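Troubleshooting: if your tokenizer reports a length mismatch, compare your output against this known-good record of 377 residues.
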Amino acid sequence: MHVPDGFINAPVSAATGAVAAVAVAVSLRGARRELEGAGRGGTGAGAERTAPLAGLVAAFIFAVQMLNFPVAAGTSGHLLGGALAAILVGPYTGVLCVSVVLLMQGVLFADGGLTALGVNITDMAIVTTIVAYAIFRGLVKVLPRRRSSVTVASFVAALISVPAAAVAFTALYALGGTADVSIGKVFTAMVGVHVLIGLGEAAITALTVGAVIAVRPDLVYGARGLAKPLELRTSPLAVPAPGADEVTTAAREAEPVATAPAAASRRSARPVWLAGLAAALVCAGGISYYASASPDGLEKVAHDQGIDKKAQEHATKDSPLADYSVKDIGNARLSGGLAGVIGVGATLAVGTGVFVVLRRRRAAAPVAAAGAPGERA
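Known-good structure output:
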């Protein structure tokens, strides 16, 4: 659903650019809290581990977006990623993850117009993340408190988020579309095909969330709070020594209660990180060669409705990685695979860098406040 330059006029593109900028600024503040919250109270992997994991989520979304899957005759679809990112690392961090992916795609691979970057971030990062996470949280509250409920809620949230993005695009096109077409026809065609694409999005999201939650539920943002505290109890058959009751009572009052999430937070996240990176590299570097060559949902609708006649050449069309292939490499499989690997590496580096900086700034704030002049303990 990458909108190219020329589909939306300049005023609406500028307005969505402003919306995207504000949303990213708000998400930067919110992501700091989410990264900090991952290291408090034993509810997550620790902020120092969550930042690299958030970068990995961005790289994984980039890789899976290369895997276009057929949804109807002559039409394909691909992951948008808003639901997956929001559930794995949090809604604010999720907006940033998808925004980083869109930025890298536009700059390096000429995928999605640069003047339309605000449109794409608004549609594919903000709308999908907000809609998906709102639905996800609502379902988690009413479903039984177990891991399978998180997977089910992920499926439904991802499914609905894709046609929601199609509706948002139609609304933006109604405001600033450059072609004289029937908005009703655009709406019907966009929502119809993206309901089918939503099924693929839902399957990918549920499988990924389910795989992570099966091995490390403490790493899934949307699963926080599901684990029950692990209480240490004394066997009723044990014979207490003289004075043991007083000692036990005092110890219980002095020591914090151990929790299962706290124990999990001390486990290394490296195996999950390595497995996720390997999966991203395999998807982008190998499986992407077998992706559907059919136009995606927006491309198909744009062609059928005559919207694509207004498309403009991409500003980075001469990029050595344009169209997800490495320039001057004749072998299509090698060229596409290498471009995918480069994209995964670049997205991982940029995404991780952003989140590491956010984490460090958040960690430095209390230290600066504690050292402010004029304050006493």
